[in-house]
Amino acid sequence: xxxxxxxxxxxxxxxxxxxxxxxxxxxxxxxxxxxxxxxxxxxxxxxxxxxxxxxxxxxxxxxxxxxxxxxxxxxxxxxxxxxxxxxxxxxxxxxxxxxxxxxxxxxxxxxxxxxxxxxxxxxxxxxxxxxxxxxxxxxxxxxxxxxxxxxxxxxxxxxxxxxxxxxxxxxxxxxxx
Length: 177
Ligand SMILES: Cc1cc2nc3c(=O)[nH]c(=O)nc-3n(C[C@H](O)[C@H](O)[C@H](O)COP(=O)(O)O)c2cc1C
Description:
By secondary structure, this protein is mainly beta. The protein has one domain (21-155): Pnp Oxidase, Chain A. The chain has 3 helices and 12 strands; from the N terminus they run αβββββαβαββββββ. The strands form 3 sheets. Strands 3-2-6-9-10-5-4 form a 7-stranded antiparallel β-sheet. Strands 1-11-12 form a 3-stranded antiparallel β-sheet, with no helix packed on it. A hairpin with a 2-residue loop joins β11 (150-152) and β12 (155-157). The site of flavin mononucleotide (FMN) has 18 residues, from β3 and β5.
């Protein structure tokens, strides 16, 4: 290998992502919540999404046991929520208002979208495990103008200027993706 871990991480930081919090209830009945940037879409039919969890995360064993979870896509105004759920252990949920999902998983209010999932598959991903969820319920924000929280280069960012831009003229090439 011609690079070290630091360079690898820095290079990965060149890929901007949104920020999500995955939520669920452990087998022991406790609420789970973890900030992730590894969320992505997988399939439209069936509707599948993915995220990955570090094996060294405190809550990793609990995530491996549950069959239902939700992925909540954070809005730009939810940086403090992201930081709260990126803390190891502790009571991440104190004073949090929670919405009960259709499948009884806890959802975060004001998320741009929440995907309630049934566990579909788990794959080895080195020091992470890749979770693929089958989306069985959706909740989306009524505020179409709300902006997402962005993570890029190891920092939160804003879309700001580019947000109102018209789509590029060849935007249709992205349709039917
Ligand atoms: C923007 C951001 C993105 C993150 N993405 C991930 C991720 O995709 N997978 C992961 O395992 N941890 C990720 N983390 C770190 C976890 O949120 C953090 O380790 C958290 O403490 C795990 O919760 P736990 O210690 O209760 O298990 C991310 C943190 C931040 C701030």
